[in-house]
Design a protein that fits this description.
- The chain has a four-stranded antiparallel beta sheet with strand order 1-2-4-3, covered by helices on one side.
- Helices cover 32% and strands 29% of the residues.
- The protein has a domain of 55 residues: 2-Layer Sandwich (Translation Initiation Factor Eif1).
- It is built from two helices and four strands.
- It is of the alpha+beta class.
Length: 79
């Protein structure tokens, strides 16, 4: 699924959080895409990176420190 390079499109904010001693990469700023599209993006990221994750409250949470590969994924999937 490609993310369109539109100046009005939401910009993903990717940050690393530590929860109970474990790293979680959180992607926010895409809540305007809707839950179905967020689920699709999360599924593609989990498959590509070989990790677990979920969608909660308009954010995508991916297990582990995956900031760099997620940024690369978003760059590769822009049109």
């Amino acid at each position: 699924m490609a993310i369109k390079n539109n100046p009005r499109s939401p910009v993903p904010r990717i940050r690393l959080e530590n929860r109970a001693g474990k790293a979680v990469t959180v992607i926010s700023g895409l809540h305007t895409y809707g839950s179905k599209r967020l689920e699709t993006i999360a599924r593609e990221l989990k498959t590509t990176l070989g990790v677990g994750g979920t969608v909660k409250n308009g954010t995508i949470e991916i297990q582990g420190d995956k900031v760099a590969p997620i940024k690369e994924w978003f760059d590769d999937n822009e049109e």
